[in-house]
Design goal:
β9 and β10 form a beta hairpin. The protein contains six helices and eleven strands. It is of the alpha/beta class.
């Protein structure tokens, strides 16, 4: 799964802490509420929300193996706990889990993307400290993306965009970024630049730290850093200035 992160500039609000997990499965509990976050993952159907959640759990060490939706390996994704979800390959009911990162407990809520189950998104957004809006790098902003975006605004939920599927045929993150600005009316700026697209996708460039990041190995667990390739230096500097300009505009 290949991705690109886009920054949204939106007001943050005070955190509201609620008990979200449907079933506690053990592990350390963080007593300091300042180190607890409720994060939702929302998107149009088939944008990769559940797959993204599965990767978050794997790379943070919460689970030992990654599984796919639709139960292709006779196991299914961790968040698809209903048999019907594994058969259809869609999320029907919001599911909650947790993980830990940098001494912070993160409650993750995976929400449905199908319009018929949008009430699940609605009730989840009421208790979130922030959200991840997942967009397909091919499909871009779609109908349910607009609905989810309106719901986030209604409850003043700060969010960040996650452009997924950079390795798919027809991937175009610049078009998706343009749609975020024109259709969702966000003051959006790229935090990362993809190094190659589709079958040539190799890694990303961190615009803030001005370095290239590569994910190697069978599951991308071997993270290596290096200098920005020469052919991307001008673009990286342009995106960095664009990001700073957006932040200055928002602050003013």
């Amino acid at each position: 799964m290949s991705c690109l992160v886009i920054g949204f500039i939106r007001n943050f609000r005070k955190a509201r802490i609620y008990s979200l997990t449907r079933q506690y499965t053990g592990g350390p509990i963080q007593d300091d509420v300042s180190k607890i976050r409720n994060i939702g993952i929302s998107a149009h159907i088939d944008s990769g929300k559940t797959t993204l959640t599965e990767r978050i759990l794997f790379y943070t060490g919460r689970i030992e193996q990654m599984h796919e939706v639709k139960g292709k390996d006779n196991v299914g994704a961790t968040m698809d706990f209903m048999d019907l979800e594994r058969q259809r390959g869609i999320t029907i009911q919001s599911a909650a889990t947790y993980t830990s990162w940098n001494d912070t407990n993160i409650n993750i809520i995976d929400t449905p993307g199908h319009v018929d189950f949008t009430i699940e998104v609605e009730r989840s957004l009421r208790v979130l400290d922030g959200a991840v809006l997942v967009l397909c790098c091919v499909g871009g902003v779609q109908s349910q993306t607009l609905t989810v975006n309106r719901q986030m605004k209604r409850y003043s939920v700060p969010c960040i965009a996650f452009i997924n599927k950079l390795d798919r045929l027809g991937a175009n993150p610049d078009r998706v970024l343009s749609q975020i600005r024109s259709k969702l009316h966000h003051n959006a700026a790229a935090l990362h630049i993809p190094i190659g697209l589709q079958s040539e996708h190799k890694g990303v460039i961190d615009v803030l730290q001005n370095k290239a990041i590569y994910f190697e190995g069978e599951f991308g667990t071997d993270v290596t850093e290096g200098e920005v390739p020469d052919e991307f230096k001008v673009l990286a500097e342009t995106k960095r200035k664009e990001l700073i300009g957006n932040l200055v505009y928002f602050h003013s």
